[in-house]
Amino acid sequence: MTSPALAERLDGLLFFPVTAFGPDGGLDLDAFRAHVRAGVEAGAAAVFACCGTGEFHALSPEEFGACVAAAVEETAGRVPVVAGAGYGTALALQYARIAEQAGADGLLAMPPYLVAADQQGLLRHYTALAGGTGLDVIVYQRDNAVFAPETVVALAQVPNIIGLKDGLGDLDLMQRIISAVRTALPDRDFLYFNGLPTAELTGLAYRGIGVSLYSSAVYAFSPEIALAFHRALTTGDDATVNRLLDGFYRPLVDLRNQGRGYAVSLVKAGVRMRGLDVGEVRPPLSEPTPAHVKELGELIERGLALLGDR
Residue 46: which H helix or E strand, with range? Predict the structure, then answer.
């Protein structure tokens, strides 16, 4: 039932690049290309372009298409490129077509815009999106798109819906979803992703219910730390996992929680701090305060220092 091309390639750390803007606020494709190229060369398993961290909400369709095409060109087939798609069904289908034309390998289907839909409405939306594209689709659970286990079972029966990314963090619900899909569709290789803003903090908990794939916001500005944590997590190096959790990731989450939109703006500040000018976030997001940027810099230095303590 599955389309294995994308599903079989999503094995490793998933990179969600920021979208680069110039001083005038316009798209800076050269900086975006450099960011994607550096992430792939550092060891990313996939590039998720123009998704939440990439400010999908702030991009015009033309900018979206240009960024996805640039990501496809920079990866050159070395790793898959997954593009965001969202808003209502009609616009989500439009973005899906743009992504397909730009050469993307798949879609991350974001929650519908604004409305609070029931389960049948959500099922109709994502089924229509999947039916309108030849790309594989990962459905993103968060905010106003929260799924009952039976809804995920129905979604998993759509051939090109290959997985569920969880940005909600309800492990009880995720366990029931995984169990329901496994029971109803024992031969279906359906993927699950930890999609919380700083997924490393809950990595151990998600692995406990069989979810090993996750997106790493930290990878965008410090692939060294992100890769070291991922390696430790997958090899059972609890000492390194705990050292990075205690000394870097928990303080980072504490900092992230001090401002609205920091899940994106702090990441972008981190990328700038590491030497690549990707510009500021677009409205309605705001830049982090100077004090918080300074604290982020200190955290990055601490995280890098912790790698030397192994």
Answer: strand 46-49
Peptide bond between residue 23 and the one before it cis (omega within 30 degrees of 0) = no
DSSP-assigned letter for residue 57: G
Catalytic residues: 140, 165
Q: How many residues does the chain have?
A: 310
pTM of the full predicted structure? 0.96
Calpha distance 125→111 (Å, rounded): 10
Per residue in 210-254, pLDDT tens? 999 999 999 999 999 999 999 999 999 999 999 999 999 999 999
Q: CB-hemisphere CA count at 13 Å for 112? A: 20
Give the residue ranges of the annotated binding site for pyruvate.
53
Residue 130 CA to residue 139 CA, distance in Å, equals 10
Identify the residue whose tokens are 């090899």: 235
Q: Of 260, 256, 261, nearest to 293 (Cα)?
A: 256
Is residue 112 packed enough to be buried (19+ CB in 10 Å), middle (13-18) or exposed (0-12)? buried
The pair of three-digit structure tokens given for residue 87, joined into one six-digit string? 């808003």
Q: Cβ distance 153 to 181 under 8 Å? A: yes
Topology (CATH) of 7-235: TIM Barrel (3.20.20)
Please state, in angstroms and rounded to a whole number, the distance separating the CA atoms of residues 260 and 168. 17
Tokens linked to 222: 């410090």
Q: How many CB atoms lie within 10 A of CB 184?
A: 15
Cis peptide before 284 (omega within 30 of 0): yes
Could you tell me if 28 and 276 are in contact, meaning their C-beta atoms sit under 8 angstroms apart? no
Can you read off the two tokens belonging to residue 258?
């001090």
d(CA 73, CA 36): 10
The domain ranges of the chain are 7-235
pLDDT at 3 over 70: no
